[in-house]
Automatic annotation (TrEMBL):
The keyword Transmembrane helix does not apply. Residues 49-139 form the ParB-like N-terminal domain. It holds the Pfam family ParB_N. This is Chromosome partitioning protein ParB. Coiled coil: none annotated. CDD domains: SPO0J_N. SUPFAM superfamilies: KorB DNA-binding domain-like, ParB/Sulfiredoxin. Transmembrane segments: none annotated.
Length: 310
């Protein structure tokens, strides 16, 4: 079989979404540029395979050509820690050769992380209708976690060229529900993984997506996990943190120039990397300052030191 089927560890509901069990290999014919026809082993729309990265060719029609090296490095670090949460999408063009449809940034970051094989949705040519039907059927199953549903919604929008209103009609959900699911994919990877693995409910997730600052999201997330906070307690903590943030913003306006967007992004990226609140203190206009990484226990300190390769 050209691509090996395996369990992904993305949650027990993923078997339903990705049709891991009893996937039957089918054969289809494709026509190459010379006009000849060859048979290929393929997987049905909606299935997932682990594929060697050196077997995947980039899409020659990919309009995006520039990739931020720093952003790729950060994504590679995230993949090393959390794994690749969102599979790429490919189509099979020969027995051991695939062409990328979507996910070039994830593919590049996986190579940078030294990953040899990654999960991929394998599609055949002209199967958009079959893919849409398979995704709709699976979205309506009850045993999918919120991240799996969000990924399915995103796939339908990107690969089936649907607007959110059209997607809502397809899956019998209103636009606000679709939007709430898609917003989950903007959360830091560590929080997405917790939702995926059942550590956080959809109610907890809805509270967290309303928090603008990544470091605050991560702080609240740690509080929820460590203290087993209910959804109601989480919403209350979000309200308190937002009030404190608003008061802090008012104080900062009276002080020196606020932190630039560039430094704020660095602070947010560091918070996401270390899964804790990180403070970037700028002490002078010449660029001098300090990075503060708080820890709650010796175990937490060991975790941070491990991330620093200490």
């Amino acid at each position: 079989m050209a691509a090996q089927q395996r369990k992904t560890g993305l949650g027990k509901g993923l078997g339903a979404l990705l049709q891991e069990e009893d996937i039957q290999v089918s054969r289809t014919s494709i026509h190459n540029s010379s006009g000849t026809t060859k048979n290929l082993e393929t997987s049905p729309a909606g299935s997932i395979n682990f594929i060697q990265v050196d077997q995947i060719n980039v899409n020659p029609f990919q309009p995006r050509t520039d990739f931020d090296p720093q952003a790729l490095a950060e994504l590679a670090d995230s993949i090393k820690l959390q794994g690749l949460i969102q599979p790429i999408t490919v189509r099979q063009i020969s027995k051991n050769e695939y062409q990328l449809i979507s996910g070039e940034r994830r593919l590049r970051a996986s190579k940078l992380a030294g990953i040899k094989e990654i999960p991929a949705y394998v599609r055949t040519a002209n199967d958009q209708q079959m893919l849409e039907m398979a995704l709709i059927e699976n979205i309506q199953r009850e045993n999918l976690n919120a991240i799996e549903v969000a990924l399915s919604f995103q796939r339908m929008i990107e690969e089936c060229n649907l607007k959110q209103e059209e997607l809502g009609d397809r899956v019998s959900k209103n636009r606000s529900t679709v939007t709430n699911y898609l917003r989950l994919l903007k959360l830091p990877p560590v929080i997405q993984a917790a939702i995926r693995d059942g550590q956080l409910s959809m109610g907890h997730a809805r509270a967290l997506v309303n928090v603008a600052e990544i470091d605050v999201q991560l702080f609240i997330f740690k509080e929820v996990i460590e203290k087993s906070l209910s959804v109601r307690k989480t919403e209350e903590l979000v309200r308190i943190m937002q009030e404190q943030s608003a008061n802090s913003d008012q104080k900062n306006k009276r002080k020196s120039n606020p932190m630039s967007f560039q430094f704020q992004k660095i602070e947010d990226d560091l918070a996401s990397k270390f899964a804790t609140r990180v403070k970037l203190n700028m002490k002078s206009a010449k660029g001098k300052g300090a990075i503060e990484i708080p820890f709650d226990s010796e175990d937490d300190l060991s975790r941070i030191l491990e991330l620093l390769d200490w």
